[in-house]
């Protein structure tokens, strides 16, 4: 009983502290929020390669491109996708790989050509190399799909923060 009272007091104190810190939800207002409208105005040009195709689709899914009339911003993305051997057995066969996907991206204001954001982000995944070549290739492709989604989330979050900050200024 005393634990419950202490927990309730701690929770009330934490909530009171949050109310005074000026914390505001980024997407307050749903699809009509200024951040959501700005994200819908971001165009993503084609990105070369299979990883680029996956990345562009993941970005467009998160940016809600269908809602944009004319793009005000362009998100230029360059990918570096690599596989490296991690585990090498005594007979020189590879037992583990690491897939690394890195993105260099720039958010450009289309009307002025000003670069609003120039950043990099990356992610990697470990892959077990098994006796079935098909299973290994499938694992490598699944890793690429997962990494593209992860990076798209990171990029969109950073773009949203940048667009929100540029509104305040």
Give the key terms.
169 residues; Double Stranded RNA Binding Domain; 4-stranded mixed beta sheet; 28% strand; flat
How many discrete structural domains? 1
Order of helices and strands: HHEHEEEH
Question: What share of the residues does DSSP label as strand, in percent?
Answer: 25-35%
- Share of helical residues: 40-55%
Distance between the termini: 50 Å
DSSP strand tally: 4
Count helical runs: 4
The top level CATH class name: Alpha Beta
User: What's the mean pLDDT score?
Assistant: 83
Largest sheet: 4 strands, mixed
- The whole-angstrom Rg is 21 Å
Spatial order of strands in the largest sheet: 1-2-3-4
CATH homology-level superfamily: Lipoprotein like domain
Contiguous runs where pLDDT drops below 50 for at least 5 residues? 26-32
Structural class: alpha+beta
Shape annotation: flat
CATH architecture: 2-Layer Sandwich
CATH fold-level name:
Double Stranded RNA Binding Domain
Protein architecture, described:
The chain is of the alpha+beta class and 169 residues long. It has a single domain (30-168), classed as Double Stranded RNA Binding Domain (2-Layer Sandwich). 46% of the residues lie in helices and 28% in strands. It is built from 4 helices and 4 strands. The chain has helices spanning 2-20, 34-40, 49-63, 133-168, and strands at residues 42-43, 73-88, 94-109, 115-128. Strands 1-2-3-4 form a 4-stranded mixed β-sheet. Strand 1, helix 3 and strand 2 (73-88) form a beta-alpha-beta unit. Helix 2 crosses helix 4 and helix 3 (49-63) packs across helix 4 (133-168). The longest helix has 36 residues, at 133-168. The N and C termini lie far apart (50 Å). The relative contact order is 0.15. The model is unreliable at 26-32 (pLDDT under 50).
């Amino acid at each position: 009983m005393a634990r419950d009272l202490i927990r309730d007091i701690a929770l009330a104190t934490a909530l009171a502290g949050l109310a005074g810190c000026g914390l505001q939800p980024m997407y307050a207002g749903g699809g009509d929020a200024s951040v959501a409208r700005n994200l819908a105005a971001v165009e993503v040009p084609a990105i070369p390669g299979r990883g680029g195709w996956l990345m562009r689709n993941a970005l467009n899914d998160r940016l809600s491109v269908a809602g944009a009339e004319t793009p005000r911003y362009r998100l230029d993305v360059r990918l570096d996708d690599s596989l490296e051997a991690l585990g090498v057995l005594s007979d020189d066969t590879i037992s583990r790989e690491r897939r690394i996907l890195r993105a260099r991206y720039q958010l450009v204001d289309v009307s002025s050509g000003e670069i609003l954001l120039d950043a990099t982000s990356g992610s990697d995944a470990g892959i077990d190399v098994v006796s079935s070549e098909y299973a290994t290739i499938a694992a490598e492709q699944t890793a690429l799909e997962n990494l593209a989604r992860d990076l798209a989330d990171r990029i969109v979050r950073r773009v949203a923060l940048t667009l929100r900050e540029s509104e305040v200024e």
